[in-house]
Specification:
Helix 9 (about 180-185) crosses helix 10 (about 190-205). This protein is about 55% helix and about 10% strand. It has a 5-stranded parallel β-sheet with strand order 2-1-3-4-5, with helices on both faces. With about 230 residues, the protein is an alpha/beta fold. The chain has 11 helices and 5 strands, in the order E-H-E-H-E-H-E-H-E-H-H-H-H-H-H-H. The longest helix has 15 residues, at about 190-205.
Length: about 230
Amino acid sequence: MTTRVIIVDDQAMVRAGFAALLAAQSDIDVVGDAADGAQGVELSRRVHPDVVLMDVRMPEMDGLEAARRLLHPLIGVTHRPKVLMLTTFDVDDYVYEALRAGASGFLLKDAPPADLISAVRVVAAGEALLAPSVTRRLIADFARQRPAPRSDGTALRLNGLTPRETEVLELIARGLSNQEIAERLILAEQTVKTHIGRVLAKLELRDRAQAVIFAYESGLVSPGER
């Protein structure tokens, strides 16, 4: 199936470059672009993309607010695309907030072209873009800057996990892939996927991105741990 993508960035050359790269892929269809967050939200609601590439810093409406509006739409708006945040900076406060809002991950603008193509495919498939080592470092940085007290509600949610599920959640938060978790725990990769599905369901989380945020904010994983 073809993945429908829109690109939201205030730099015309960035939009054109990304569009040309992605449109050259047989399984990706670029269906529009926008110069700011407000235009991006309007365009998304009109053309219903599968994935929105969203710049973080833009005039009129920044990418964070646009992501919130797309991922938590108004009553009567049913379309919710996957949102992949784009940033020029390797540490950007907005990125953490975007992940909390439900974005599926983020990518540095200077990443190799192959990484951008792969990122779109990964996000479109319903996975969070949290495998690269730079992402693990950024998530840890954001968690360190914003430590959240462990609430009784959070503790109760963690208590609902089995020891194995808790272990899997810890490894997700440290940035390990399914294959790496399987090797670490000496499990089949399909078994790891089953555990992850149960973790997300029990904690009422949408994807791995939210699982990472939950693990840090609950205190299950401390910044800097490996």
